[in-house]
């Protein structure tokens, strides 16, 4: 395609959008609305991924020694754990680290342990297993090690949460897909009105020997412009809405932490622009097909 | 230039538009196709433009075997000829200049060439002064002249006109026909479907008369209709 033709096509697409301002605005409105809903799902999915990733990083199994054990006895316990073939890795958490962690966890309420020394904290080991199926038997075995006070295993709860999260994500993906298909058809329908209003022009172009693509491209440009403007507006709406929402719940709700808007921005805008372009282009291509048969 | 070989066209609703017609129009000729509405003359032009395909037989235009042409090749056939219609078929959102230039843009002509050819074509039809006017602001005759300028801007070897004066008053019709005649004098083959009896009679060009899908008469320097006999007897 020659440069002049490309120029012509882009110019024509812009002029057409502008000449059918009202219709274009209607289409932009539809795209924006779809994009806002899409953005909602997207933000939920991203947050869910972020939060479940956090969950995954949490220790699976913790072995707490009795606080009064001395270093030598702790080493014996560590030796036993290390020698267990079912254990993949183990991390030593000292009394001091445990104390700091507790302080962190208490946050504003840390004066509760003010004045206490770290000596009352137990030494603990964070354990990762080779095979989660062994979990139950490992818990039983480690409980029997002399000097071990408690074995905490939270994997079941985490597993369940992860499972639920996965299903929610799958559900979201399906909903997003359906939504995209629906908005594509809405856009194609809106552009169909534009195409219909200009079917005479298309017909004339065919008569004087314009190729299908020569006729189609300006409409595709028009669709892409509509899709892009809708995407940008939708993005602005979502980022303002999400910004307000996440700053209101800065501390998160219960165990959920909200992803920072800045971090989200790029993922969302890329998705929006891409979806805007694809949906606009496909929508216009679908709607013009019928009128090219002359 | 244009050849119909045993062409039959039957529409899907059962109408027999053309019944086994064969006709040959040579390079540089000026031919009228005359006949009543529904006689099949428009169908002939539609076959030339490949708007319709013949039910049987073959159509050759400008070296293209039109009946065998693939869909993708149709635009190139249409670029090789100029066409003028009863309803002008101008783009309402484009100025006169843009309308004419458009026919060159679709062929991906260079802007330099477009800037040279379009004013020439507009001058030919006498509309240089109206270049920046929109078609809606022009009279019917002027609009048809714009359509003619557009049809000629690519210097086609063949010009076809389907009832070009159907929407015009007699004086304007004459202007258009004179223009078509001038175009023919410059070497372009011209085919005009019409039922303007007066014009056909006085222009003394080849006349192909169609009736109910068959060619009933094909005369050099012919006349429109039955008066032929009358004239022969009394003149």
Keywords:
heterodimer, A: 294 residues, alpha+beta, B: 235 residues, alpha/beta, six-stranded mixed beta sheet, 8 helices
Characterization of this structure:
- Chain A is an alpha+beta fold and 294 residues long.
- Chain A is built from 9 helices and 4 strands, in the order ααβαβαβαβαααα.
- A 4-stranded antiparallel sheet of chain A has the order 2-3-1-4.
- Chain A starts with a helix and ends in a 6-residue tail after the last helix.
- The mean pLDDT of chain A is 79.
- With 235 residues, chain B is of the alpha/beta class.
- Chain B is built from 8 helices and 10 strands.
- In chain B, a hairpin with a 2-residue loop joins β9 and β10.
- In chain B, α3 packs parallel to α5.
- The two termini of chain B are 35 Å apart.
- The relative contact order of chain B is 0.18.
- The C terminus of chain B is likely disordered.
Would you kindly provide a brief summary of this structure?
The complex is a heterodimer of chains A (294) and B (235). Chain A has 294 residues and is of the alpha+beta class.
Secondary-structure topology with pairs:
The complex is a heterodimer of chains A (294) and B (235).
Chain A: H1 3-19, H2 21-57, E1 61-65, H3 71-83, E2 87-93, H4 95-106, E3 124-129, H5 135-143, E4 148-153, H6 155-197, H7 199-207, H8 212-248, H9 261-288
Helix pairs in contact in A: 1-2, 1-8, 2-6, 2-8, 2-9, 6-9, 8-9
Chain B: E1 2-10, E2 16-25, E3 30-34, H1 41-48, E4 56-61, E5 64-65, H2 74-79, E6 81-85, H3 96-105, H4 111-124, H5 140-152, E7 158-162, H6 170-185, E8 189-194, H7 197-203, E9 206-211, E10 214-219, H8 227-234
Parallel strand pairs in B: 3-8, 3-9, 6-7, 7-8
Antiparallel strand pairs in B: 1-2, 1-4, 4-5, 9-10
Helix pairs in contact in B: 3-4, 3-5, 4-5, 5-6
Number of separate helices of chain A: 9
Strand content of chain B: 25-35%
Q: Alpha-carbon distance between the termini of chain B?
A: 35 Å
**Please, how many helices of chain B?**
8
The structural class of chain A is alpha+beta
Unreliable residue runs of chain A = none
Outline of chain B, from the CA principal axes?
globular
The amount of helix of chain B comes to 25-40%
Assembly type? heterodimer
- What is the number of E strands of chain B? 10
Largest sheet of chain B: 6 strands, mixed
Chains forming the largest contact: A-B, 19 and 25 residues
What string gives the helices and strands of chain A in order? HHEHEHEHEHHHH
């Amino acid at each position: 395609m020659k440069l002049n033709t490309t120029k012509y096509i882009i110019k024509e697409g812009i002029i057409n959008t502008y000449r059918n301002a009202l219709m274009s605005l209607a289409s932009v409105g539809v795209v924006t609305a779809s994009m806002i809903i899409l953005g909602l799902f997207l933000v939920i999915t991203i947050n869910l991924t972020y939060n479940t990733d956090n969950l995954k990083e949490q220790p699976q199994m913790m072995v707490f020694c009795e606080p009064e054990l001395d270093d030598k006895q702790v080493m014996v316990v560590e030796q036993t754990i290390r020698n267990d073939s079912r254990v993949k890795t183990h991390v030593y958490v000292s009394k001091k680290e445990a104390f700091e962690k507790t302080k962190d966890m208490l946050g504003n309420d840390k004066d509760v342990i003010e004045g206490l020394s770290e000596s009352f904290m137990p030494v603990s080991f964070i354990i990762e297993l080779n095979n989660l199926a062994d979990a139950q038997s490992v818990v039983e075995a480690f409980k029997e090690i002399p000097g071990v006070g408690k074995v905490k295993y939270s994997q079941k709860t985490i597993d369940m949460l992860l499972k639920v999260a996965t299903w929610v994500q799958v559900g979201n993906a399906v909903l997003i897909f359906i939504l995209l298909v629906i908005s594509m058809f809405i856009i194609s329908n809106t552009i169909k009105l534009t195409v219909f209003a200009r079917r005479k022009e298309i017909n004339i172009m065919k008569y004087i020997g314009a190729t299908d693509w020569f006729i189609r491209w300006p409409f595709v440009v028009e669709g892409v412009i509509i899709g892009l403007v809708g995407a940008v507006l939708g993005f602005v709406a979502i980022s303002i809405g999400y910004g307000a929402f996440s700053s209101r719940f800065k501390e998160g709700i219960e165990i959920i932490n909200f992803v920072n808007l800045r971090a989200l921005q790029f993922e969302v805008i890329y998705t929006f622009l891409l979806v805007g372009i694809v949906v606009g282009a496909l929508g216009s291509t679908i709607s013009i097909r019928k009128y090219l048969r002359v | 230039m244009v050849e119909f070989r045993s062409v039959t066209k039957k529409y899907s609703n059962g109408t027999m538009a053309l019944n086994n017609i064969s006709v040959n129009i040579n390079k540089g000729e000026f031919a009228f196709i005359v006949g009543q509405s529904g006689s099949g003359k428009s169908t002939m032009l539609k076959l030339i433009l490949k708007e319709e395909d013949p039910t049987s037989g073959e159509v050759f235009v400008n070296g293209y075997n039109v009946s065998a042409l693939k869909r993708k090749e149709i635009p190139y056939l249409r670029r090789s000829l100029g066409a003028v219609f009863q309803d002008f078929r101008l783009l309402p959102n484009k100025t006169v200049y843009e309308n004419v230039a458009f026919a060159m843009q679709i062929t991906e002509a260079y802007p330099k060439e477009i800037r040279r050819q379009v004013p020439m074509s507009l001058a030919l039809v006498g509309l240089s002064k109206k270049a920046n006017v929109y078609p809606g602001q022009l009279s019917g005759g002027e609009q048809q002249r714009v359509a003619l300028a557009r049809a000629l801007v690519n210097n086609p070897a063949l010009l076809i006109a389907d009832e070009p004066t159907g929407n015009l008053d007699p004086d304007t019709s004459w202007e258009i026909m004179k223009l078509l005649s001038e175009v023919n004098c410059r070497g372009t083959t011209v085919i005009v479907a019409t039922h303007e009896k007066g014009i056909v009679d006085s222009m003394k060009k080849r006349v192909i008369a169609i009736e109910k899908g068959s060619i009933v008469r094909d005369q050099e320097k012919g006349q429109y209709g039955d008066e032929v006999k009358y004239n022969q007897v009394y003149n």
